[in-house]
Amino acid sequence: MCDNRNLHIDHVSKSYGDHVVLEDIQLQFQENGVVGLLGRNGAGKTTLLRVAAGLLFPDKGRVTMGMDDAGSLNYKSRVAYLSERNAIYPHLKVIEYLKWVGQVYRSEKVKPAVAEASEKLDLSGILDRRIGELSKGMKQRVGLAACLVPNPEVLLLDEPVNGLDPAQIIHLRSVIKELGKEKIVILSSHLLQEISAVSDRIVLIDHKKIIVDGPLQEILSRKSNQRIELTLNKKGLTNHLRSVQWVKDVREKSNNVYTVTSADHTDIRELLFDLAVKKGWKILGLKVLDHPLDDLFKTS
């Protein structure tokens, strides 16, 4: 008997003309949590999410949730999709847009649904502002709030942190983690650091096929330690950095530029930021040196 909440992507293939984008994709999503869809640019992540959202029809295979086929009105009421471009109406006020979304989806209680979504995304201070006046980060939060208004069971997020500043990324990560406690959240990215920061499970797509699918810690064990180039406002901090338990090695390249290697497979960018704040250092630059996908693709 089919569980009504299970999302099944069953032998799905999709082409654009002669170009095959997805080939015989099989995935199941059975529990609440955050699933990271990882792949290089052009790997087929967006196409897969759009097929899962019922916005594109596969050439072969099918997508279902319980007894509902993708593309049906009932299916679409259970799934919400946030595009990377997040095409929302710039002339509307935030509150007007969220209410309109509730009316489109015929939410039984539009006002409380809008209030709850606004609270989760911390939008109370901008509800009366026009969307066109907002920063990209704020627009992403409005778009995500709009996805929550109909109270979907599945959230599909296409590169949700792309182009955001560090503070906006950290806030959105915390929101996504919380949403994963009550919904199936599938988000795409070409950056392993972003996926590993929020996901319980990683699905790796390359050359139109799923090549890795498994729990986060199992997947991370396949990649090498993270290396970061850190520029601080002070020199001679090598020993201070080495004394931290999550740092394996530190090399001072010049007076205030350090190469920091993590002790394990953890993303240490936020840890470095917190350490700098605690010590009173100023971070002038922070760059991940290793390509985030190289090791995973080599071992897959």
Write structural notes for this entry.
This protein has 300 residues and is α/β, with parallel strands linked by helices. The protein contains eleven helices and 14 strands. The strands form three sheets. It has a six-stranded mixed beta sheet, with helices on both faces. Strands 2-1-4-5 form a four-stranded antiparallel beta sheet, covered by helices on one side. Strand 7, helix 6 and strand 8 form a beta-alpha-beta unit. Helix 3 packs across helix 4 and helix 4 crosses helix 5. The mean pLDDT is 88.
Cα-based radius of gyration, to the nearest Å? 21 Å
The residue ranges in which pLDDT falls below 50 over 5 or more consecutive positions are none
Considering DSSP H and I runs of 4 or more, what fraction of the residues is helical?
25-40%
The description of the largest β-sheet is:
6 strands, mixed
What percentage of the residues does DSSP assign to strands (E)?
25-35%
Structural class call reads alpha/beta
In round numbers, the mean pLDDT is 88
Q: What overall form do the CA principal axes indicate?
A: globular
Annotate the secondary structure layout.
Blueprint: E1 7-16, E2 19-29, E3 33-38, H1 45-52, E4 60-65, E5 68-69, H2 73-76, E6 79-82, H3 94-104, H4 110-120, H5 136-148, E7 154-158, H6 166-179, E8 184-189, H7 192-198, E9 201-206, E10 209-215, H8 216-220, E11 227-232, H9 238-242, E12 247-252, E13 257-262, H10 269-279, E14 283-288, H11 294-299
Parallel strand pairs: 3-8, 3-9, 6-7, 7-8
Antiparallel strand pairs: 1-2, 1-4, 4-5, 9-10, 11-13, 11-14, 12-13
Helix pairs in contact: 3-4, 3-5, 4-5
